[in-house]
Amino acid sequence: MSNIVVKENKNTNLRFNLGYSIIRFFRENIGIIIGFIVLCIVISIVNSNFLTTNNILNVLRQSSTNLYLALAMTMIIILGGIDLSVGSIIALVGVVATSSIALLGLPVYLGIIAGLLVGVLVGLLNGYVIATTVIPPFIVTLATMNIARGAAYVLSDGKPIRVMSMSFNNIGSGYIGGVLPTPVLFLIVILIICYLIMNKTKLGRYMYAVGGNAEAAKFSGISIKKVQLFAYTFSGLMAAVAGIVLASRMFSGQPTAGEGAELDAIAAVVLGGTSMSGGKGKIGGTVIGALIIGVLSNGLNLMGISSFWQYIIKGIVILVAVYTDVIKKKKS
User: What CATH number should be reported for the domain holding residue 282?
Assistant: First the structure.
């Protein structure tokens, strides 16, 4: 009898905690959620094709690639850092994976592993240099951004490398059960992992501590170097996943892939409420921010607006989001 009571109490607590988490999520992100809903309504009024099933799945597929980057970028910005190299890592990983399969004749899984390893190594390099020197993250990742992009051009000779393997191409363009896009399934798994890291582990608490006050975190026994090393290595891994998925979607590895991807990721993070000065931010906010960027890009495409203008609009969005963060910080 007592076991039954204990189980009922556990189930009740679980439901209460879940309900409280959902309510807290909406309360913390009410402004951005309202903005997202208004944006969807406006675009659906302007173009009726927006709310079709195919288009919504397309938005989710496109947003998933940005979210791989944005979730890792959230960790880095909470630390008070930045990673400008993710777009170039996407290109380099795509070229390495496709050339391994198409030119070297390696099995698909080995090509994917090679690409992932390259992304991890670049991220590890970023983290190591940032953690062991006084060079600012902006400069370090700016340097690796150029190195990775240059390496992608050198390895591909500036030309796309096509892959005709369906097992590879299905990674980015396939469906699970004929309904759920494969990249979205990857996103769900990565999202759960990131949520657990940031909310249920010491590592997540350490990131907030380091971003909030690095000196205090150091005196409390937190290894700042290890935290930085993990965050940037994880960012490299997420950029590698994005690179594999994008190359699969395009049926080729292209040295121009991922241009401006870091801009979209940073925009999603700051829109989601993560402070650029570090110490504050939530994974849930980043998800909404990335969906806004995805819906905005999709809506502008449906309205026939040039991609050149889209860069301008996204830049304005980042500026407004950062300015809003500064105003909120002054008020607090």
Answer: 1.10.3470.10
State the total domains in the chain: 1
Indicate the pTM of the whole model. 0.89
Burial 58-78 (b: 16+ CB within 10 A, else e): ebbbbbbbbbbbbbbbbbbbb
pLDDT value, residue 278: 85
Q: Is residue 186 part of a domain?
A: yes
DSSP 87-133: HHHHHHHHHHHHHHHHTS---HHHHHHHHHHHHHHHHHHHHHHHHHS
**Residue 169 domain boundaries:** 48-325
Q: Count of CB atoms within 10 A of residue 325's CB?
A: 18
Q: Is residue 34 part of a domain?
A: no
For 126-178, the pLDDT digits (tens) are 999 999 999 999 999 999 999 999 999 999 999 999 998 888 989 988 898 88
